[in-house]
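Protein modeling request. Please complete all fields; requests missing the sequence field cannot be processed.
Requester role: graduate student
Desired output: 3D structure, token encoding
Chains: 1
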Amino acid sequence: MREHHIGQTVIPYEIDWCDDRETIGLSLDQSLELTVRAPMTATTGEIEDVLESRQEWLLEKLYGLQEQSEPPYPKEYLSGEKLPYCGRQYRLDVVEADVPEPRLSFDGTEFTLRVHRFDAPADAVSIRRKRQAVVDWYLRHAADKLPERSPQYESKLGLSDVSIDVGDLSGRWGEFDDGMVRLNWRLILAPVRIQDYVLVHELAHAAHDDHSDAFWNTVGTLIPDYEKRREWLRLNGNSLTV
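Delivered output (242 residues):
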């Protein structure tokens, strides 16, 4: 593990040497570990030069990650706990019922988790079963609700009938690939304005491959305060979990 110093700040980093790479790239993940991806022909001096030139970016990224909210404590799925939905928290009521496996429902004001009496205790197995029921409900609901928000923005971008797929995207809130928008199901936990920002962000990629000025101008025409919404997601994304 190497170290790069910016004043009193020490940033450990590792070098990932790549055969098929021509430029030096940097990435800083949630664990605050910096990875430098470099071509095999690069020297350590050239890598240090890149690190020197990207010091402002490194500090912004480092402190930004440190500012992010911590994930909430793991749930045991007991009555009185709260579950998030569209930016609000709703009480969870757990009741015993004649069901083979846990089932979650929502009436607009409260979540109800029906469980077999053997799933009522907070042991590890029953917690996993209850969590799976909760996640399954959110996945189904997100797959129904998130695509409904797309047509209003598609028409303004000159698009129509864009395919929207909702699922479990690792490390991403959304992506656009070959005419299809993929959204992370956890967006259903966020406020609707955040859902719309991610959706518009991905729809704008239908016209712009990269994050150019033209891309952000397109996003801004539909979401004028997109920077605030993007910042909200950066700071609160870790809290969007069940």
